[in-house]
Amino acid sequence: MPIATALSVNLNKIALMRNSRLSGIPSVTEAARVAIAHGADGITVHPRPDLRHIRPSDVYELAAMLQVEFNIEGNPFEGAMGEYPGFLELVRKVRPAQCTLVPDAQDQLTSDHGWDLQQHGQQLKPIIDELKARGIRVSLFMDADSDDIELAAALGADRIELYTESYADAFGSEQQQAVFETFLNAAERAQAAGLGVNAGHDLNLDNLALMASIPNLEEVSIGHALVADALMMGLGDAVSAYKAILVKAGLESGVESN
Question: In the annotation, is 256 catalytic?
Answer without folding.
Answer: no
